[in-house]
Amino acid sequence: MTHLAQFVRLDLMAMRPYLKSMVVMVAIVAVAVAATSREPLAVFPALMVMGAMFPSYPFSLDERAHLDALYATLPVSRTVVVLGRYVTLLIMFAGVVLAGLVTVAVLVLVGSGIAALVHLGGWTPPESFVDHPAPLCAAGGTVGVLALAVSITISRRVYAVRTL
Questions:
Q1: pLDDT value, residue 160
Q2: Number of domains forming the structure of the chain
Q3: Residue of higher predicted confidence among 14 and 141
Q4: Is a pLDDT exceeding 60 seen at residue 118?
């Protein structure tokens, strides 16, 4: 295993105790947006914006547990530490994207099933459950990626100032 992969593994293992709270937070946002929105695809952009907040987790954990001292004792260069942090953040963001896609798929399937049952009862819904999903998904993904890029840039500048 390369030094980069080992650092990413270390970073993810350090965040393992906080995984439960992150998953619960994602679930709460998904349920809240799904319950208050008529459009099931609105969950995706909400989770993308939320995914942009996750880069603060590794840095706050680093501050709280003084992991910079640990990183200084490891046989890895500063470049590996920074690149490893980027890879960790991309893995976290990919997890949020996957959670958003799964949530949207479930909501669309459940909504289609409910619409079909209602239609069997003789009532036709006035609007389609999903009119134009592609632009909404594209907008949510774009906002999420841009927010992640801004967050990583800011984090990189803060991390570059610190000494290991």
A1: 64
A2: 1
A3: 14
A4: no
Q: How far apart are CA 108 and CA 77, in angstroms?
A: 47
With beta carbons less than 8 A apart as the criterion, state whether 80 and 5 touch.
no
Question: E strands within the chain?
Answer: none
Token digits of residue 127:
């609007």
**Beta strands in 19-150, from DSSP E residues, in sequence order:** none
- Type of residue found at 107: L
Expressed as residue numbers, the domain containing 156 is 3-161
- What confidence tens digit (pLDDT) does each residue in 59-106 have? 888 888 888 888 888 888 888 888 888 898 888 888 877 877 787 777
| Residue 93: closest CA among 144, 128, 139, 57 | 144
Q: Nearest-CA neighbor of 41 among 135, 146, 145? A: 135
